Amino acid sequence: FVLANIKNGSDPVKLLTDLLPQLTDKIIICDDISSGVVPLDAVSRMWRESTGYALTLLVRNSSEVVRIFCGLELKLKENDK
Description:
- This protein has three helices and two strands, in the order H-H-H-E-E.
- The protein is flat.
- Helix 2 (12-19) packs parallel to helix 3.
- It has helices spanning 2-7, 12-19, 42-60, and strands at residues 65-69, 72-77.
- Strands 1-2 form a two-stranded antiparallel ribbon.
- By secondary structure, it is α+β, with helices and mostly antiparallel strands.
């Protein structure tokens, strides 16, 4: 999603901001691309940075956030119910 929008010249974070009301009660899955060497090409760097901003926006507006690493669940943010 983020990379496709960058390649189309769109701002993925702005688009997600506009779509937030439609994302209520949805599950969003994202691969972790934050580890490792910073990419050399500009598009890959923009993709990596924009993904971070997009996830920050989604986490801030989520009731629950779970990270799965090697099959282990880590709750980063829990529903207040």
